[in-house]
């Protein structure tokens, strides 16, 4: 927990269940204590600061913030394609792919909405999903934690 969590109530955390209309996706939703524009900027510009590799930040990611742009990972002096940006509506939405588990590719859609408490609500959709319900729940919990790290990064900007 960090200072941004001090006044958080359980009602502020909205990790959602899978939608019955999208059984092949995992979802997370969280209201942050930063503005929508700050949350979006931290997501797109500082992706490596809050997206972890194992337990460590991935400060080695660079995002070209336009449709068709690449997400590049810098490792050991080499650049590797890590994902692709499919859609960007600055301040509102970003949809991108990333590679995980070898050659598996996932699509993540992050939507940034105005929350009732004055902060941003971030809704994440991770697809396709073909794991068990227990694995989906674990992924949704991991995404909720990632959104908390995103809030910390956005608060520091």
Summarize the structure.
This protein has helices at residues 36-45, 47-50, 133-156, and strands at 26-31, 52-53, 56-57, 61-63, 70-75, 78-89, 93-100, 104-114, 120-127.
The tally of strands reads 9
Uncertain spans, ≥5 residues at pLDDT below 50? 1-21
Q: What is the CATH architecture assignment? A: 2-Layer Sandwich
Structural class based on helices, strands and sheet pairing: alpha+beta
Radius of gyration: 15 Å
Mean pLDDT: 81
The portion of residues forming beta strands comes to 35-45%
Measured distance between first and last alpha carbons = 18 Å
Q: Helix amount, in percent? A: 10-25%
Keywords:
two-stranded antiparallel sheet, Alpha-D-Glucose-1,6-Bisphosphate, Chain A, domain 4, seven-stranded antiparallel beta sheet, alpha+beta, 9 strands, 157 residues, globular
């Amino acid at each position: 927990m960090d200072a941004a969590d001090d006044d958080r109530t359980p009602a502020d955390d909205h990790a959602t269940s899978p939608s019955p209309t999208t059984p092949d996706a995992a979802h997370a939703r969280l209201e942050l204590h930063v503005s929508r524009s700050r949350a979006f900027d931290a997501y797109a510009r500082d992706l490596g600061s809050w997206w972890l590799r194992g337990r460590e930040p991935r400060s080695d990611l660079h995002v070209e913030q336009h449709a068709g742009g690449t997400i590049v990972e810098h490792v050991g002096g080499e650049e590797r394609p890590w994902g692709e940006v499919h859609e960007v509506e600055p301040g509102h939405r970003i949809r991108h792919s990333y590679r995980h588990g070898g050659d598996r590719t996932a699509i993540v859609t992050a939507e940034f909405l105005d929350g009732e408490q004055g902060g941003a609500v971030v809704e994440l959709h991770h697809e396709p999903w073909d794991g068990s319900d227990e694995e989906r729940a674990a992924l949704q919990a991991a995404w909720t934690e990632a959104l908390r790290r995103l809030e910390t990064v956005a608060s520091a900007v």
